[in-house]
Amino acid sequence: MSERITWTAFTRWMKFNLVGMVGIAVQLAALWLLTSVALNYMLATAIAVETAVLHNFFWHERFTWIDRRNQGRGSANRLLRFNLSNGLISIVGNLLCMRLLVGEVHLRPMLANLISIGFCSLVNFLVSDRWVFRSAV
């Protein structure tokens, strides 16, 4: 049983990262687009992160945690929890990292954003698995 749980957790972690990699592309594309039209990098970051959060929720619901999808909690409830947790972690974490890395260290916004994403990823997975898409059992 322990081996199955470990394999399931590893598979889920890999799915989470696959969705996350596509989400990174969505976030970076949104950030590039928004900053290229001269939007402030902080506001552009917040909008880009929320765009990626919504994208990721859609795919986590249909791919990463599909086995927990119909366990008595509706999609709207999960979306609210996902936005409250992953959204908040991603937006606050990214904004703090961006302020430090762009504002103080003077890294370019795209590189700083990639670094920020990496810091938030593990925390987001744990919160998603334990709270947002938790098993009803």
Report on this model:
The chain is mainly alpha-helical and 137 residues long. It has one domain (2-132). 82% of the residues lie in helices and 0% in strands. It has four helices and no strands. The chain has helices at residues 2-36, 41-64, 75-104, 109-132. The longest helix is centred in the first third of the chain and has 35 residues, at 2-36. It is elongated and about 45 Å long.
Q: Which SSEs are present, and which pair or pack?
A:
Layout: H1 2-36, H2 41-64, H3 75-104, H4 109-132
Task: Summarize the structure in short.
This protein is an all-alpha fold and 137 residues long. It is built from 4 helices and no strands.
Can you tell me the overall shape? elongated
- Tell me the structural class: mainly alpha
Strand coverage percent: under 5%
Largest sheet: none
Q: How many helical elements?
A: 4
Mean pLDDT over all positions = 88
Radius of gyration: 16 Å
Key descriptive features of the protein:
137 residues; mainly alpha; 4 helices
